[in-house]
Amino acid sequence: MKRVLVIEDNRDNLRLIGYALRRSGYGVESAETGEEGVRKARECLPSFIIVDINLPDIDGFEVTRRIRDTEATARIPIVAITSHAMVGDRERIITAGCNGYFEKPIDPLTIVEKILDALGANHEDTDR
């Protein structure tokens, strides 16, 4: 079973994303802070990571930088989620090292499809 790490401080969003991923056959690890997310990424080496940009300690940009700075986790695909989509955010998120991003609110019926689209159809580690 493919494992996914979801780093999200909003428990409702975490529950919805986790439910949708499990329904699609993924195992889900979760973290509610950036520091916890970086630690869990290094421990469980997930197939991909979903990271909220606005976290209570370090933001999603710093989480992504730290994950990219470690050899063992540097190639793990990361998709950012944000509720503050403004002009230039997409470029900042991609430049920070994310493979894609999408905006909140989250639709549990389409979220997995959006995540896989953000990662690209050719990414073999995301196969269900």
Concise overview:
This protein has about 130 residues and is α/β, with parallel strands linked by helices.
What is the CATH level 1 assignment? Alpha Beta
Largest beta sheet: strand ordering = 2-1-3-4-5
Distance between the termini: 9 Å
Looking at this structure, what is the CATH superfamily? Response regulator
Strand residue percentage: 15-25%
Query: Could you state the order of secondary-structure elements as H and E?
Result: EHEHEHEHEH
Question: Average pLDDT across residues?
Answer: 89
Q: State the helix count.
A: 5
CATH topology: Rossmann fold
What is the overall shape?
globular
Q: Return the CATH architecture.
A: 3-Layer(aba) Sandwich
Radius of gyration: 13 Å
- Spans of at least 5 consecutive residues whose pLDDT stays below 50 are 124-128
Can you offer a commentary on this structure?
The protein is globular and about 30 Å long. It has a five-stranded parallel sheet with strand order 2-1-3-4-5, sandwiched between helices. Helix 2 runs parallel beside helix 3. It is 38% helix and 19% strand. The chain has 128 residues and is an alpha/beta fold. It has one domain: Response regulator (Rossmann fold). The longest helix has 13 residues.
